[in-house]
């Protein structure tokens, strides 16, 4: 199972093992990670699962598609490494992935 570390805006981190094929959002929800609201349940329609892919990992994650990039225009703290965690699928190649969470999802 791939291991993912979620780092809160205040620096606290939580490392979890996720099923390959699941999304970062689902992994956060299943493991009660604060900071991922996920109001739409993963249908890429609300942007409340915004996260930042760690710089060391950004080139290993599949790029965002147009629907996701359109929603990322609406997040409160966009960065070049912003992603919607519902759109990032976990794979064995992402074992060790580090994800940073914004200060707010609104």
UniProtKB/TrEMBL annotation:
GO terms for cellular component: cytosol. Keywords: 2Fe-2S, Iron, Iron-sulfur, Metal-binding. One of its GO terms (molecular function) is metal ion binding. Its cofactor is [2Fe-2S] cluster. CDD domains: fer2. GO terms for biological process: P450-containing electron transport chain. It comes from the Bacteria. The keyword Acetylation does not apply. InterPro entries: 2Fe-2S_ferredoxin-like_sf, 2Fe-2S_ferredoxin-type, Adrenodoxin-like, Adrenodoxin_Fe-S_BS, Beta-grasp_dom_sf. It holds the Pfam family Fer2. PANTHER family: FERREDOXIN-2, MITOCHONDRIAL, FERREDOXIN/ADRENODOXIN. This is Ferredoxin. The lineage of its organism: Bacteria, Pseudomonadati, Pseudomonadota, Gammaproteobacteria, Cellvibrionales.
């Amino acid at each position: 199972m791939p291991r993912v570390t979620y780092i809160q805006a205040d620096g606290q981190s939580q490392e979890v093992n996720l099923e390959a094929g699941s999304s970062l959002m689902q992994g956060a929800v299943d493991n009660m990670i604060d900071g991922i609201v996920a109001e739409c349940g993963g249908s890429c329609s609300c942007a409340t699962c915004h996260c930042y892919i760690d710089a060391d990992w950004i080139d290993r994650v599949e790029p965002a598609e147009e629907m996701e990039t359109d929603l990322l225009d609406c997040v409160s703290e966009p960065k070049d490494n912003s992603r919607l965690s519902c759109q990032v699928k976990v794979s064995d190649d992402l074992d060790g992935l580090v994800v940073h969470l914004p200060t707010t999802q609104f």
